[in-house]
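The data are passed on as follows:
___
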Amino acid sequence: MYKIANFTLFLAILCMILGCSEKLRVFSLDKQFGYMNDKGTVIIEPRFEKAFAFEGELAVVKKDGKYGFIDRKGEFVIPPRFEHVSSFSKDGLASFKEAGKYGLVNTKGEIVMEPSFDAVGNFAQNGFAIIRKGDKHGYVNATGDIVIPPQFRTADHFTDNGLARVGVYGEDGFIKEGFIDGSGKFVIEPQFDFAFSFSNDGLAKVKKGNNWGFINKKGEFVFLSDTICGVEVLKNPQGEITYPKKSIEEICKRI
């Protein structure tokens, strides 16, 4: 019992030092939103048109038709001035919409990227977020700097191998997709009619002409997809069936 009491006291002191945050839950009353703790005690009176869960020390709320951020006392840290906002990323940035355009704001309410884009996505693990201007996509980093200017017709987040799927118009007037590195340079040229981002196994599924297949980071086909007697199979670049482990005769035997 003595050990438990000491441990409880230790946790209390630790919380005083580090600042343990009480969990607050959104509730509504008469179409207004506020926050209460797990005991049902109202901590922030219901006075917002909308309210969202706290992420860290700040929460998004809507008041008088605009969005802003409050602290755990219910006081505005960033006044309600935005048409729309996202939650803050781990890097301390949130996208916002003002006058129909999107920009980035930090936790102090400082504008780190002026609202001049038609869309700003969430930040990926590599610290880049997709931005869009018109029909062109590019990337911004966690300090609000444009690292890859909008130039791609399609774009996806960077994956763990450091590559991102993007698309540009080909000579035939149709979108061709390939993969770029963090500098915006094509590592795998835009040659695919459609492509998925790389998965954790280091392969990406792509379509080129009538063929579906899987490529590695070098852009080399590792497997090709084909249909034999109505059954989808995988072949290696030499055309040999690798899955299922059956001959063509065995695959077609059921027909």
Observations:
- The chain has two helices and 25 strands.
- The mean pLDDT is 89.
